[in-house]
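Step 1: inspect the first sequence and its tokens.
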Amino acid sequence: MKIKDVKVYLVNAVWRNFVITKIDTDEGISGYGEGTMGDFEKTVEAAIYDFKPFLIGREINIQEIYNLLYRHFFLERWSNINDSY
């Protein structure tokens, strides 16, 4: 089962806004997740859409996707910044 599409929905609530992410698969199964970060819902939405091209077509494997995002978009970037000092 592979990721076919990723969509983000910003949901306004009385006391905070929520970021809901929907992932559609090539087998017609969809999954939802919530990733709210205080008052930075637009930042979270932008980050999800930045990651989208790297997720489309990828097998649904939580650990592999986590490793991809963590190692290539967090660790590398920070290590490169720290290396320049």
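Step 2: inspect the second sequence and its tokens, then contrast the two.
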Amino acid sequence: MKKMKMNQLLRGAFVAVIAAMFIGFTASCSKDNDDNENGAGKSHKVVFKAIASSGSNIEVAVYGIDGNPTTATSLSGTTWSSPEVTSEPGAYNATVGVNAVGPDASATLKVQIWVDGELKKEGTSSGQYLSASTSYTF
């Protein structure tokens, strides 16, 4: 008799555990939307920026989304900012690379990727001949 009750109890506990796992799995999957969590699947407003140390001169910038590069040449000064670029829904990657010349070996260059008004990624370079790049995956 005790053995029969123990078997029924174990069988009932096993069924309850399986049912709970099934309900938990189903509930978690129904709310799964990886595209919305990491930002893929929707469009974004992206701005690329570069900031060089005093006395430096930014010369060239290449930036783009998903392998569609834009080149900005004949630049000058210590700061540069791209026009706002709107990514296509489902875009995967944003990339920027900037070249500059500094006054000496202690010069620095920082490039940034801003997505929807928020700084997402930054890359730096130092030396007289500066080349900084970074990329961000949505």
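Step 3: confirm your contrast with the notes below.
The first strand starts at residue 45 and ends at 52. Confidence is low (pLDDT under 50) at residues 25-37.
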